[in-house]
DNA sequence: AAGTGGTCTAGACCACGTC
DNA sequence: ACGTGGTCTAGACCACTTC
């Protein structure tokens, strides 16, 4: 350590520890030494060690747990999510044999705002449903999605939201159509605090944000959604 | 400020300052107060102010400059990049009327590794070219791309790399084909230090990583590339 | 020379988990 | 009671920009 300089101390320490994890010195689901131990080991202030750990956390190598220690993450091959015209979350997970759940966090009905009207091609004063849905596998939160649906197209949606299990299923079973993905806009960003808490990640871990517009097979836009997804555990594959 | 608690100080300060920027209290390309001023204003330690500024930086609101101050970023509508079977960087920028440049950072020739062989469907011992290309608009770095090309398909590539201006142009003008995007894998992550320096962003600003496989019109894979792109200034639109 | 952001040290108190 | 990570204070020195 500290063989040569120019670099920043905390980043050097982070890289050193990551190399150790790679080499198996610290193995998966085990703890790395405590912050105080690392301070002694590298002869630096605790603040520096904490910056190093923050960097490793953001890169997805470890997750610190208050009162317990700093655990090495499982090196999971990121879940692949295929984006094509007709795929939805539930189908993707099923095709990979992953058990998943979708939970309706909240919903409301209201008058469409300007952006919602533009996206869904609605008239002024049109009403929409707004849903917040969280998706998880094995109790690991994957994504939080805000979905906007034109009320006109979904009569009595309220009655189908009890015992919610999958939005897709409601489309198919209750309204008898299969939405078609029209376009998606993908972006990397940091989560809002609210989303970070829901996804159970620090607010400095990047997320993928996918803004989607789905069409009715007939052609009209029927669903506008913004999904915020853990960046480290997921890959989005686009096939042509 | 500090009307109610439970929140974390530095995050509260960050949100407060962001609100001020939104409201125009601090306008684009102007400076926010210095760290020391903010310390006095909020009656907190400089460390806390720095954490708040770090948060704002990561979210893309400001960029601190050593010795000068902390500037409010221009609220640019992110550049949209359309991913479809046949689009490439140069075409995207041209279609949006943006002046751009592509610079060849380095290149080398070598024996294909396992992953490269798998992606490009090459035999053991096959040789490849590896290029590092940086793309910018108006001196703002946009992306760094590592590209792997099978040597067999690109005879005398070296001679075409002098006065490099666009990989796409070389494909078209020298080898007379137009590659077709086969698949792309999109991910949000943090940049390596090397890439962060090239892209001129802090190492904690998220980037979009797009791993692409391009095919020869005849069907054979012809280009494998991994692009690392500034997350805040870009949107990737996928159309169907 | 003075002011700015970048990094590091030293030490405190708290919330949480384990014993 | 003790160890862990989470947050904050106080103060130092440096590199860089501006005057």
UniProtKB/TrEMBL annotation, chains A, B:
UniProt entry keywords in alphabetical sequence: DNA-binding, Transcription, Transcription regulation
PROSITE patterns linked: HTH_GNTR (PS50949)
Matching Pfam families: GntR, UTRA
Species: Caldalkalibacillus horti
Superkingdom of origin organism: Bacteria
Keyword flag Nucleus: no
Signal peptide: none
Domain called HTH gntR-type: residue spans: 7-75
Protein name per its UniProtKB record: Phosphonate metabolism transcriptional regulator PhnF
């Amino acid at each position: 350590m500290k063989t040569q300089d120019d670099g920043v101390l905390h980043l050097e320490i982070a890289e050193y520890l990551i190399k150790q994890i790679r080499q198996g010195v610290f193995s998966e689901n085990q703890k790395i030494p405590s912050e105080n131990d690392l301070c002694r080991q590298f002869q630096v202030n605790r603040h520096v060690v904490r910056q190093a750990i923050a960097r490793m956390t953001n890169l997805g190598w470890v997750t610190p747990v208050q009162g317990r220690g700093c655990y090495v993450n499982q090196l999971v091959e990121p879940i692949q999510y295929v984006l094509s015209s007709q795929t939805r979350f539930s189908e993707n997970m099923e095709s990979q044999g992953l058990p998943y759940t979708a939970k309706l966090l909240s919903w409301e009905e209201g008058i469409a705002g300007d952006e919602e009207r533009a996206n869904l091609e609605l008239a002024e004063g049109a009403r929409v449903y707004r849903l917040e849905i969280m998706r998880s596998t094995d109790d690991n939160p994957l994504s939080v999605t805000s979905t906007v649906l034109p009320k006109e197209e979904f009569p009595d949606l309220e009655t189908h939201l009890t015992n919610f299990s999958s939005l897709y299923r409601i489309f198919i079973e209750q309204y008898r159509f299969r939405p078609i993905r029209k376009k998606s806009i993908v972006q990397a960003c940091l989560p809002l605090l609210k989303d970070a808490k829901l996804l159970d990640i620090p607010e400095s871990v990047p997320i993928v944000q996918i803004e989607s517009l789905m069409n009715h097979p007939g052609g009209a836009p029927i669903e506008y959604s913004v999904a915020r997804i853990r960046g480290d555990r997921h890959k989005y594959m686009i096939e042509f």
